[in-house]
Design brief:
transmembrane, transmembrane helix, about 0% strand, membrane
Length: about 120
């Protein structure tokens, strides 16, 4: 069972790391890429170094039954979980842009983006 948790964490971490590394080369999504690579590295560490503690934590939470499947099915679930996590983080990013650039700019246009006045010389 610990091996299943280890495989799940490694596959999902590797997926996050690869997509994050690709996003680091795109200027618009550089910060998102850094966040994904950090999350991927964390999941890789949890899967390789702290696999027993991760399994014990998942038993306490009650999600250890999620890992009682065939290894091929577990690998697919790991990749899908990583994609769902990336989609959630990407949507949070766009909600943040909407709130900061949309609503706050509409309510307080001079505070968010101050106007620079030209001096008369």
């Amino acid at each position: 069972m610990i091996e299943n948790v280890e495989i799940f964490m490694i596959y999902s971490g590797f997926t996050l790391f690869i997509v994050g590394a690709i996003c680091c080369f795109i200027a618009v999504s550089f910060r998102f890429g850094v966040l994904c690579t950090l999350l991927g590295n964390t999941m890789l560490y949890l899967g390789t170094i702290f696999s027993r503690r991760t399994y014990e934590f998942m038993e306490r939470v009650g999600i250890s039954d999620f890992f009682n499947h065939d290894l091929d099915e577990l690998k697919v679930k790991a990749v899908v979980t990583a994609v769902i996590l990336m989609t959630f983080l990407w949507s949070v990013r766009w909600v943040k842009h909407f709130v900061v650039d949309g609503v706050f700019y509409f309510l307080f246009p001079n505070v968010i983006k101050p106007q620079i006045k030209k001096s008369k010389a």
